[in-house]
Amino acid sequence: MPVGIFRVCLVVITAIVNHPLLFPKENVTVPENTEEIIQKMKEREESLRLEQLRLEQEIAGQEARQKALEKAAKVVEESKEEKVPWDMWTAISMVKDTGGEEDDMAVLGKAFKGVAFPDKVILASFYEKRILGTTGDMARMREMVEGFADDLLEALRSVCNRDADMEVEDCMGVGSMYENWRVRKPFVCDLIVPFAPPEPYCFRSQTWCSGDSFPPDEQGYGTIKVCRADEDVAGCICDKTKLGEDMLCLLHSQANTTRPNSEMEDLLCFKNTQYLDADQVMKWFQIAVTKAWNRISHKYEFDLSFSLLDSPGALKIKFRSGKSIAFNLTPVVQYENSDVYFISHFPRSGLAADLPSSTHWFLTFAVYERRFIQLVSKMLPANACHVSCLQILSFLHEKQCSLTGPSGLTNYHLKTVLLHLLQARPCQDWAPEKLEARLQDMLKFLEKCLHEKKLYHFFIGNGKVPAELGFPIIFQRAEPLNLFRPFVLHRDVYRKTVDTFHEMLRNTSALINEYTVHIP
């Protein structure tokens, strides 16, 4: 009824405004040029038509918002009856139980109010036509890159001095390409390469949660000390033993210039210290890879080059046809006997953008993250929607950033959100038909974390990590690590990130419809 009254008023206004006497010339007479009058009337008519369309769309939006509020109220009532249990770690991580969805809506109010979210039919079609087809491409690329990397590392071992150089182990695939959720092209494989010093040396690591005091900006980092294998943990034996005149300490003697391992020491450590230097490791690794490629390049019909100068193993294969494949081969140091690794560089990521110093190494839990996803996937329903949710969210964020510029959110943040929800939600909640609901859960959780500037690392401080993973207990007992801490320190980045996220929510339907074949 209000729309009908509005249209009648609009017709009356149009008739009045279009009357030619409302546009007199200076002599207050009607222009003799009939064509000029007709042209002005047409312009006014077009302007009013556009204004009418805009107002109609606004009215339609208001009606949609009203329906959304009614639907939300109904969902809240239903959820109160369900009373799905959530664990304590989820509460710490700010994931409310389904009975608290009303509180979530209060916090999320502005972001989700009036958002026309695609239904499950549209989402399923979008996923099938836009994302699902890339799975085969990822598998073929992984196979090709892994085969070449193994050959390259074997050549690297052959050109290194086994008595003075680092010992390189086999590489391992980590990240989105190996967890099968990467959607951004070009595809890039991330491989990590553990290395160790030659005998008689060894690495002894120290982390921020090992009992020693680390400032807040160094949480998540550690240092690596190069020691002799027979050296006491508390210090070098030269500090406790009086050496004879004919004996020298290979680590601490300034006068010894002939010892066989001096080249290794200069390469590994920061000047005048025993601490492993990430910059020195980067230089060593790039030189070693270059030598290795020179040895085997005759076997391949493509060129190999470094694609990023500030990353030790950001490599690019370039074929004669002009096509190229990029991959990262990054040296890492194993933490004790676990699958936690110290890593110096994160290509294409802001996780370790501001290292406190070149002797501080970031800890990566990528191997355990991959195992956790594999473990949970075995317990979920067939064709579960967990990977689909992460792929769609990653796609939406990437497209929005291409429109409005980069934000402080990374794919690692998005994956962390999924890991928390996988632990919090019952297995049956990830059935394929619940894709729409779980995607909305991820968006709501993410915005709640942005609102409070808190997104905790999934493994650090999480006492409920499945025992089957064999995760080190020292990190489970540590204080939770807030991945959104930089937002507290950099308000401009935070504001940009929040604005980009809200813009992505508003554009969700448009972005998905743009990349989906029309469904009648």
From TrEMBL:
Keyword list, A-Z: Cell membrane, Coiled coil, Glycoprotein, Membrane, Nucleus, Receptor, Signal, Transmembrane, Transmembrane helix
Domain of life of the organism encoding this protein: Eukaryota
Key word Transmembrane present: yes
Domain spans labelled Mab-21-like HhH/H2TH-like: 386-460
Coiled-coil spans in chain: 38-72
Protein name, entry field: Inositol 1,4,5-trisphosphate receptor-interacting protein
Localization: Cell membrane; Nucleus outer membrane
GO cellular component: nuclear outer membrane; plasma membrane
Organism: Struthio camelus australis
InterPro entries noted in UniProt: ITPRIP-like (IPR026250), Mab-21_HhH/H2TH-like (IPR046906), MAB21L/cGLR (IPR024810)
GO molecular function: protein kinase inhibitor activity
Leader peptide range in chain numbering: 1-15
Described purpose of this protein according to its UniProt entry: Enhances Ca(2+)-mediated inhibition of inositol 1,4,5-triphosphate receptor (ITPR) Ca(2+) release.
Sequence similarity: Belongs to the ITPRIP family.
Membrane topology: Single-pass type I membrane protein
